[in-house]
Design goal:
single chain; about 325 residues; flat
Length: about 325
């Protein structure tokens, strides 16, 4: 059986199942997502909209061959069975939002009322939402001492990267991305040598790398000034600001290369601080050993806590995503 035929049957099955249920039963809407990690995020998004009349079931695009990924979701359900009242697709925005329909995939993501995207690059960007990172450190270390200003660091990080990010989006829009790929951008957007006590040198190093690459791109594309300025204003109109660029760079890079190592260093200091408090406050060795064991058994894994982080719920992009879901439901689809 072909994939298109199978998916069409699946869609008709969901519609038929809903039609056969009693009028008092809750309406089932299937939400297809890209990967296992996406299930928890989209469950968080959609739970707010469940009530006595409807509920969502979040799942991968195929239970038969376990295919995953954005292309699998879009290929299966935009080229196969039509999405609609009973089936929706929930995907990362990647650059599809920012290139604004200049590619086939971007048009698929933006044009269908049944495809919902993150607005930020990916779910990992939400998980790394700067105002929430202190709370992640608290959940990991059980120490609420603010020893690092995540908001300020990512403001500076974003402002440094913003001019180069505009170049990246522009080149993806006009088809010149092989000259400066997302991987190339990520190599520059690596704050190697980051120090909790002295983060300024990592920002200064980032500035030098960005300046060097922009000079190189200006030599390669000497007539791109007007297009660059137009792209800059366009993506700002889409919600990207110089202070929030980190939300729109590749999510895995932000999560694995930037935020996780940073949190590891911050959390190590917070753990040491708490352990020193226990050491000096203990009346005797037995109490010290018991307290230390109790504390260490309560510690959590950084990446696990990041993946469970929901501190992004008040962010502007997330509210836009919620508005899209609300609009879809209010239209009676």
């Amino acid at each position: 059986m072909s994939r298109r035929l199978r998916d069409n049957i699946n869609n008709r099955y969901v519609e038929a199942a809903n039609a056969l249920t009693s009028k008092k039963a809750r309406h089932r809407i299937v939400a297809y997502v890209e990967s296992y990690d996406d299930i928890y995020f989209w469950r968080t998004v959609l739970s707010e909209f469940e009530n006595e009349k409807r509920y969502f079931e979040v799942m991968l695009p195929s239970k038969i061959n376990l295919t995953r990924g954005k292309k699998s979701v879009l290929m299966n359900f935009l080229e196969g069975a039509p999405l609609g009242r009973d089936m929706i697709a929930c995907v990362d925005a990647d650059y599809d939002f920012l290139v604004q329909g200049r590619t086939v995939q971007s048009r698929k993501v933006l044009d269908s009322p049944y495809v919902f995207h993150t607005y930020v690059y990916a779910i990992e960007n939400y998980q790394c939402y700067a105002p929430s990172l202190h709370n992640v450190c608290v959940s990991v270390t059980l120490n609420d001492h603010r020893i690092f200003d995540f908001r300020e660091y990512f403001r500076q990080f974003s402002e440094v990267l913003f001019p180069l990010f505009v170049w990246s989006v522009m080149l993806y829009r006009n088809g010149n991305y092989p000259k400066f790929s997302i991987s190339d951008f990520n190599r520059i957007a690596d704050p190697g040598g980051f120090s909790v006590q002295n983060p300024e040198p990592s920002i200064a190093k980032l500035k030098r790398k960005v300046r060097t690459k922009i000079n190189d791109l200006q030599r390669q594309f000497p007539d791109a000034k007007d297009e660059y300025l137009a792209t800059k204003e366009d993506i700002k109109a889409l919600g990207v600001t110089a202070q929030t660029t980190y939300l729109y760079i590749q999510g895995h890079h932000l999560f694995d290369t930037v935020v996780s190592p940073m949190l590891s260093k911050v959390c190590n200091l917070l753990r040491q601080e708490r352990q020193n408090e226990i050491y000096h406050a203990s009346a005797h060795k037995t109490q010290k050993r018991n307290e230390m064991t109790c504390y260490e058994n309560s510690l959590q894994d950084i990446k696990v806590m990041l993946k469970k982080n929901t501190g992004y719920l008040t962010s502007e992009p997330f509210r836009r995503l919620q508005d899209d879901v609300r609009r879809y439901l209010e239209t009676g689809t």
